[in-house]
Amino acid sequence: TPAQTLNEALQQAAAAVSALGEEFSVAQDDLAAVQKRLEDGRFNLAVLGQFKRGKSTLLNALLGDDLLPTDILPVTAIPTFIHFGSEVGGAVHFIDRPDPVTYAATGESSLATFLNDYVTEAGNPHNRRQVSRVEISHPAPLLQQGVVLIDTPGVGSTLKHNTELAYQILAQCDAALFLLSPDPPITETELDYLQTIKERLPRTFYLLNKVDFLDDQQQVASLQFLAQQLSPLYDSAPQVMPISARKGLQARLSGDAKGWEESGMQVVEQDLIDLFAREKQQALHLSLERRSQDLFTDLDTQLRISLKVLKMPADELQQLLEQLRQSLAALEREKQAAVDLLAGDLKRV
Fold first, then answer.
1. I need a labelling partner for 301 at 20 to 30 A (CA). Which of 96, 144, 256, 264 fits?
2. DSSP class of 28
3. pLDDT (tens digit, 9 = 90+) per residue, 90-141?
4. What's the CA gap between 95 and 118, in Å, rounded?
5. CA–CA separation, 349 vs 345, rounded Å?
6. How far apart, in whole angstroms, are the C-alpha atoms of residue 231 and residue 238?
7. How far apart are alpha carbons 51 and 181 in whole angstroms?
8. What are phi and psi of 230, to 5 degrees?
9. Structural element, H or E, at residue 34
10. Model confidence, pTM
11. CA atoms of 75 and 183, how far apart (whole Å)
């Protein structure tokens, strides 16, 4: 089968890379991660979009729980992975230490309150705590089919590192919910991001959020405008589903089935269930195949550079190393000057 063929290729590549030494340890880890996802059949569905489109509220609505922080300020550049578990729990993983900080539901504080200290700019400005990722377990039925939901920072906010991570996270995604809203309409930043998403992901759903703030005429006009903007990316304009994640969440929390349907979230949920039933394995395999091709290309480039360095005369190599040291020293001086300048600004404020 195609999955067996891909798995064999990954095994062969992993065996070859393991013989290349520590210099290729990152590539070894990346290949192992793809292999594990293929073996587990874990399907990563990301919620993507611009800053403050309502991504966390949408995820809360799908889970039927007020789980993730939904502050008016941007979250920091930390991806949050939500997988199935028999009860609500959380783990915050760090770049600079091996042991995560964990959360278990006790009734004293909510998971959203716990996460505020790690994933928001207010609690963890510019990720000073060095958080690498957050993992959450939740008993939502949508997650029982091996699906992992990913909450991502938005593109286009004042925080450049958020946009950078929004692009980087695509390597771990198999499909996406792309969230738009009428305030403002689709931007050039989003269209650029969508071009990359189209190249990387086999399946993307488009949602127009916050339609509860529009009358019928405004909603039709917004959907028509989006169709015009999205048409150049496809042979024909993709379907855009109008929703109110806010009303959907309210309906879920209160057990209001009619409100859930009127929010548009019932259609989204059903489309996702259909995707998982009909296309999950195919989309997962296609996504991992693309990811593997990217890894093989990166490996080829790294090997060519290594061979070129090995063939380089010792005096030329020494000269390049000295230039690198000088550049690093200059960068360190610039960094210190920037720190001093910011300290002065902070003092004046």
1. 96
2. H
3. 999 998 888 999 988 776 678 888 888 888 877 888 888 888 889 999 999 8
4. 13
5. 6
6. 7
7. 11
8. -85, -20
9. helix 25-40
10. 0.79
11. 19
